[in-house]
Design brief:
Strand 7 and strand 8 form a beta hairpin. The chain is globular. A four-stranded mixed sheet has the order 1-4-3-2, with helices on one face. The chain has a four-stranded mixed sheet with strand order 5-8-7-6, with helices on one face. It has about 140 residues and is α/β, with parallel strands linked by helices. The two termini are about 30 Å apart. The chain is built from two helices and eight strands, in the order βαββββαβββ.
């Protein structure tokens, strides 16, 4: 495989919000994302890149945020809470990360729990959080 463009991981995701500027602020404060790029036109976020070591998430607006060519973009908030994807991210300490997320206003859907997948596999400790527009985020650290 050819190397990825400099600064880009092999895979990244895009997550859509009714209010992407507010979401970007929340994701940085609650989950520790670093805002790498935030491009606005007429007060509307048209592209952003948020990073954690080894990963990148782009945050964009839904059609109601001024992008009529992207009618398929929706926030779970617009779909009665339905999610079509959830992001899974490894962090250094899931318990400390959960505490930070809770303090920033994230809804903790599943408290930190250790799950052992058997002696031939691994064990992770992680939790699940929901952001203000209903996206589900899973964070864990490897125990074994």
């Amino acid at each position: 495989m050819k190397p990825t463009p400099q600064g880009w991981p092999r895979i990244s995701a895009a997550v859509y919000y009714e209010d992407p500027a507010k979401a970007i602020d929340f994701l940085a404060k609650a989950f520790g994302f670093e805002v790498q790029v935030k491009h606005e036109e007429n007060g509307v976020v048209v592209h952003s890149q948020l990073v954690l070591p080894g990963g990148l998430v782009m945050v964009g607006g839904t059609v109601s945020a001024g992008d009529p060519d992207q009618k398929w973009r929706r926030s779970p908030k617009q779909l009665g809470g339905a999610n079509t994807q959830a992001l899974f991210i490894y962090v250094d300490d899931a318990d400390a990360h959960c505490k930070q997320a809770r303090a920033a206003g994230a809804k903790i859907v599943r408290e930190p729990t250790t799950v052992d997948y058997g002696k031939d596999w691994w064990s992770d400790r992680g939790y699940e959080a929901e952001d203000p527009e209903g996206h589900h985020w899973h964070f864990a650290h490897r125990v074994r």
